[in-house]
From TrEMBL:
PANTHER family: CCAAT-BINDING TRANSCRIPTION FACTOR-RELATED (PTHR11064), NUCLEAR TRANSCRIPTION FACTOR Y SUBUNIT B-4 (PTHR11064:SF83). Residues 9-72 form the Transcription factor CBF/NF-Y/archaeal histone domain. Its main location: nucleus. GO terms for cellular component: CCAAT-binding factor complex. InterPro entries: CBFA_NFYB_domain, Histone-fold, Transc_fact_NFYB/HAP3. Belongs to the NFYB/HAP3 subunit family. Keywords: Abscisic acid signaling pathway, Activator, DNA-binding, Nucleus, Transcription, Transcription regulation. Residues 98-141 are annotated as: Disordered. GO terms for biological process: abscisic acid-activated signaling pathway. It is found in: Nucleus. This is Nuclear transcription factor Y subunit B-4. Residues 99-109 have a biased composition (Polar residues). The keyword Acyltransferase does not apply. It comes from Sesamum calycinum.
Length: 141
């Protein structure tokens, strides 16, 4: 039998995320953290279940990011789906660039390896923005 707490997000992580949006002087009760923990965990299970059903119908065993985006959209969370798709595309582009740099380094001679190391230091960063209340956004590395 699985313990109920094993199905929940870690409470410390939930609290940390909650604190990011609130003013520094704000206090968050244990009850508020636990409520948010249960809601966020349930939301993740809801979306993941929808994505998993789709994969099962298509005889696939692995749920991927596109399945999660589809599930968000099909459940009426289009605004989340659009944001997740943008993030997913940026993530894949970043991984492609990193793989290309790794392949370049592996195929280079000793002299070229020194050059590749210096170019890897100037690799593009993977930036995204976190939207805050009031429509403000702040870039995060």
């Amino acid at each position: 039998m699985t313990d109920e707490h094993d199905k929940l997000l870690p409470i410390a992580n939930v609290g940390r995320i909650m604190k990011q949006i609130l003013p520094p002087s704000a206090k968050i009760s244990k009850e508020a953290k636990e409520t948010m923990q249960e809601c966020a965990s349930e939301f993740i299970c809801f979306v993941t279940g929808e994505a998993s059903d789709r994969c099962h119908k298509e005889n696939r065993k692995t749920v991927n990011g596109d399945d999660i985006c589809w599930a968000l959209s099909s459940l009426g969370f289009d605004h989340y789906s659009e944001a997740m798709l943008r993030y997913l595309h940026k993530l894949r582009e970043f991984e492609r660039q990193r793989a290309n740099q790794s392949n370049y380094k592996a195929s280079s001679s000793t002299e070229e390896k020194d050059e590749a190391t210096s170019s890897a230091a100037s690799a593009p960063s993977f930036d995204f923005e976190i939207l805050e209340r009031g429509g403000r956004s702040s870039p995060k590395p």
